[in-house]
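Task: sequence design from structure.
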């Protein structure tokens, strides 16, 4: 029989849980029987999602993940409140648009801290609490494979994350912890309409968030190792 991850009773920390992808991923994990620890930036939205998901939620930690100690604190609270982790899903992120020559320091900080450094800090904090058979899912993006003009710094943050995930996956294979880099194409979550800088170019219609979330949770259950942009052609 092929390997499968049983989510019934699994303890999964979801960061960016309130997002357009994080929320449907959280809901599907809950439907599969997982106990969730939720994190998002807005306390109000985290509380709303927790109320929505009811008994599946073991607890939550709102946090601004750009801050240096925040990922460690989120992981520590999840472990203290919900016990050892079966998995972590990092679904937080921001986007920015504009020419590479014009990107300002605050925008660079936002992109790199939230999209690249925080998921690295999160994995570092989570590894000691992940048992064999556990998983760490990180959402990079199609631009990690095909960097886009007008999104150079965002593309760099995502390519950096994909590289980190690939190397960490090799390191952690021995401990039977899966690091899965997920690289969805444009998805209609509204992310492109709330950039930290610039304005989105006219984009073709994106994928449905529910379908992308379904594909990601299927990859968790089926023990898939990578989810490149081509994995979403039917999403
Ligand atoms: N949508 C796409 O087209 C697409 C395609 C490929 C990859 N991705 C990636 O998928 C991930 C999720 O994107 P999405 O479309 O779901 O975006 P989204 O709907 O805007 O959700 C973003 C999530 O990140 C959280 N967040 C934002 N700033 C934060 C901060 N400083 N500290 C902690 N949390 C923060 C938000 O929390 P609040 O709700 O509290 O603001 C929210 O939970 C991102 O990394 C994105 O780059 C998206």
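Answer:
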């Amino acid at each position: 029989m092929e390997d499968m991850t049983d989510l019934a009773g699994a303890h999964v920390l979801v960061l960016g849980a309130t997002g357009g992808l994080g929320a449907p991923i959280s809901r599907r994990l809950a439907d599969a029987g997982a106990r969730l620890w939720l994190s998002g930036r807005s306390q109000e939205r985290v509380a709303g999602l927790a109320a929505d998901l009811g008994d599946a939620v073991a607890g939550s930690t709102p946090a601004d993940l750009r801050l240096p100690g925040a990922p460690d604190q989120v992981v520590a609270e999840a472990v203290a409140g919900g016990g050892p982790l079966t998995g972590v899903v990092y679904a937080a992120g921001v986007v920015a648009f504009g020419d590479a020559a014009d990107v300002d320091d605050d925008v660079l900080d936002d992109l790199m801290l939230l999209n690249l450094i925080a998921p690295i800090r999160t994995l570092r904090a989570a590894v000691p609490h992940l048992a064999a058979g556990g998983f760490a899912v990180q959402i990079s993006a199609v631009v990690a494979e095909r960097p886009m003009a007008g999104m150079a710094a965002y593309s760099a943050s995502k390519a950096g994350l994909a590289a980190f995930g690939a190397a960490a996956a090799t390191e952690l294979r021995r401990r039977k912890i899966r690091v899965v880099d997920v690289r969805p194409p444009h998805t209609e979550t509204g992310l492109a309409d709330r950039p930290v800088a610039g304005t989105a170019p006219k984009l073709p219609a994106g994928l449905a968030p529910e379908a992308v979330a379904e594909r990601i949770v299927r990859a968790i259950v089926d023990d898939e190792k990578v989810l490149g942009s081509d994995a979403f052609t039917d999403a």
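Residues 105-126 form the longest helix (22 residues).
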